[in-house]
Amino acid sequence: MKMKLFRIYILFIFSFAASLRGQTLYSSLDKNIVEVGEPNVYRIKIDGVNAKDVAAAPKNELLPFHFEVIKDSIIRSQDVYERTVEFSIFQEGDFRIPPLDFVIDGRKFSTIPYEIKVTNPAQAGDPISDIMNNKELPLGIRDYWEMYKWYVLATLTAVALALALWQILRYGRKLRRPEVRATNSTLRQLEDLRKKNYLQAGDFRSFYVGLIEITRHFLSTQYHFPAEVLLTEDLIEYLQKNTTISEENEKAVSGVLLRGDNAKFAKIFPEAQQAVQDFENIKAFVKRSSKDLELQNLRQDV
Fold first, then answer.
1. Which of 1, 36, 49, 249 is the least buried, fewest Cβ under 10 Å from its Cβ?
2. DSSP alpha helices (H): ranges in the chain?
3. What is the pLDDT of residues 52-68, one digit of tens each?
4. pTM of the full predicted structure?
5. What is the side-by-side order of every strand in the sheet holding 114-119?
6. Which domain holds residue 224?
7. Transmembrane region positions (predicted)?
8. Residue 81 has what DSSP assignment?
9. What would the pLDDT profile of 217-236 be if each residue is shown by its tens digit?
10. What Rg, from alpha-carbon coordinates, does the chain have?
């Protein structure tokens, strides 16, 4: 029991002695003479900190303002405080690191001052030997392509996009024209008539009734003729006298109208081959109609 108390007593003595041990501050400077812009290192070390806070200038603000700080690192441990500042000076002349204060538990410690001489190795009139004259290299087609290929590709892309946009706008305007809408609508109606298979079933009357109805409606909407109110003979005469429709289109339409009337009233039933030809003639007429309108517009402009 006495031995145990003795050991505790000894341990207490050593701990108390350690707590009484004071802090020791060290500082060092790598070089006292440096060239302009040459890195230098300033170190501070404090032993015996005993986990106490060390109050000092903030990071990167320890040295005077004309010292260019490259790196300011702080390392703390239980008993040691270390601070390493790497810096450069970009002015020629004599400089001084003043005493720097560090406060530990209310007690101030100061470093010793350091004098630094900064020299400039380059003197006025010295020849500059580290700059070489520009060297000219011959460039080939491949070299120019590598330098300017992205500009060329960007230009081609811009041109292609502009052409595509122009075509889209042009096609869109064309689709919005009334005559184009009438043509497309009529072609769809003709296709619907073909799908009803009247000719395959031998129903020529229904086929020609549908074909004449589509033709008359197209003449009314595309050419603004009174085609839906005139009798067949009157309509044919009207087409022959009108200059808007071409002679080729007038003959194609007139023939279909006559054969359509004959089939409608059961006077004459044409051959299937003739019916197919009439369908194709009306389809071709619908597609050619825009040319008639263009010529009519030209005549009006003149």
1. 1
2. 2-20, 141-176, 178-195, 204-222, 232-241, 247-264, 272-301
3. 888 889 988 899 988 99
4. 0.42
5. 33-35, 114-119, 93-97
6. 178-294
7. 148-169
8. E
9. 989 988 889 988 899 899 99
10. 52
